[in-house]
């Protein structure tokens, strides 16, 4: 039996080695070291030989998980620029420091359990931990599918990290009024649009002057501003490419914003950015999301309104509409959700009376 003892090895000296022919008839040696006893090496040599004969033998990949996951993310298709950027950040800051050094062949359920535990010790948000978990799990699924691993060791974990359903945060009518009446600012129209239309930050920052139709009172969402201040055609979802009605209260602010931009366009001439954005710097360059976020928190302090995220203005818009009795389908179309299911899942707790009103309406009809 092809089992040998390495006389130079101080620990676990036993190993097995046997020759086989690959699919092309070329000879190759199957070898594995590191066994404590001869008997252990003999048993596993028989298993490896049987697996080879059945065509199920797996030859361990020699790279580390860090090397593999960078190659995987580089080759992964169907990822938006934003998703790729976010995934690379998670890989760089959380995955590589914890398990990037582990050889792929050594990655097992115990290492992955500790990995999840270490993520939790970093006091990350539950949703962030789940996203990181999903990145690792998806990459290992791909490795198993390509036969770089015999199976995905993530499947042996008892459960995926839980994500508690967060309670949505949004402003009341009084808080909205306190905020909007409490300041004047070059970017005020951004916050007005977010509250009145529920548009996303990237959608608002991506609006060009030509997207505003004051005659027909419509806003056309055709492009978004990405994380790195680049304009990208289309919205986050297919339904995100939409036409939004302009409320009467925003007609004058939008007109004033456009006039201000046109004055700056004339002032700077050829130096002015050709994109002609509705909200931008004095030379027409796009505002970055971090800069606008800084302005947002500055204005919260200035107006002394309860602190929420900018994205919560979107929830504020939805909540106020639903409180007025507007149908969730209308809210879905306004916010550009991919389906009405998304809207209902997010805001169903805000419409407790809809079922009661429906059955009472039918009851009155049939009396």
TrEMBL record:
CDD domains for this protein: INT_ICEBs1_C_like
Q: Name one GO biological process term.
A: DNA integration
For the Tyr recombinase domain, which residue ranges apply? 166-360
Q: Where is the Core-binding (CB) domain?
A: 63-144
| Highest rank taxon of the organism | Bacteria
Instruction: Name the InterPro entries on file.
Output: AP2-like_int_N, CB, DNA_brk_join_enz, Integrase-like_cat_sf, Integrase_catalytic, Integrase_recombinase_N, Integrase_SAM-like_N, Tyrosine_recombinase_XerCD
One MF term from GO for this chain? DNA binding
Which key words are in the record?
A: DNA integration, DNA recombination, DNA-binding
Q: What Pfam families has UniProt attached to this entry?
A: Arm-DNA-bind_4, Phage_int_SAM_3, Phage_integrase
Q: Does the keyword DNA-binding apply?
A: yes
Membrane is among the record's keywords: no
Family, per entry: Belongs to the 'phage' integrase family.
Stated name of the protein: Tyrosine-type recombinase/integrase
């Amino acid at each position: 039996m092809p089992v040998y003892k390495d006389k130079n090895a101080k620990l676990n000296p036993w190993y097995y080695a046997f020759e086989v022919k690959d699919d092309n008839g070329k000879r190759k040696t199957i070898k594995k070291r590191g066994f404590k006893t001869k008997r252990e090496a003999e048993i596993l040599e028989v298993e490896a030989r049987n697996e080879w004969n059945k065509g199920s033998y797996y030859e361990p990949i020699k790279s580390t998980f860090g090397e593999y996951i960078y190659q995987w993310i580089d080759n992964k298709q169907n990822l938006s620029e934003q998703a790729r950027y976010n995934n690379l950040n998670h890989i760089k800051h959380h995955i590589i420091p914890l398990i990037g050094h582990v050889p792929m062949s050594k990655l097992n359920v115990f290492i992955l359990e500790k990995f999840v535990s270490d993520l939790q010790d970093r006091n990350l948000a539950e949703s962030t931990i789940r996203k990181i978990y999903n990145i690792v799990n998806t990459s290992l699924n791909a490795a198993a599918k390509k036969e770089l691993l015999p199976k995905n060791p993530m499947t042996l974990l008892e459960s995926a990290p839980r994500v508690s359903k967060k309670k949505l945060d949004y402003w009341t009518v009084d808080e909205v009024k306190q905020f909007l009446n409490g300041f004047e600012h070059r970017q005020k129209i951004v916050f007005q649009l977010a509250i009145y239309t529920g548009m996303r930050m990237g959608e608002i920052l991506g609006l060009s002057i030509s997207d505003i139709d004051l005659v027909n009172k419509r806003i056309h969402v055709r492009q978004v501003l990405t994380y790195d201040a680049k304009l990208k055609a289309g919205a986050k979802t297919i339904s995100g490419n939409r036409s939004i009605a302009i409320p009467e209260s925003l007609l004058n602010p939008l007109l004033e914003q456009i006039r201000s931009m046109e004055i700056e366009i004339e002032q700077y001439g050829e130096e002015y950015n050709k994109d002609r954005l509705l909200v931008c710097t004095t030379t027409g360059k796009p505002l970055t999301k971090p800069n606008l976020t800084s302005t947002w928190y500055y204005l919260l302090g200035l107006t002394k309104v309860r602190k929420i995220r900018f994205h919560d203005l979107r929830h504020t818009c939805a909540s106020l509409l639903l409180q007025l009795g507007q149908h969730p389908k209308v809210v879905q179309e306004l916010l550009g959700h991919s389906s009405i299911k998304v809207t209902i899942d997010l805001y169903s707790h805000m419409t407790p009376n809809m079922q009661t009103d429906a059955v009472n309406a039918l009851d009155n009809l049939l009396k």
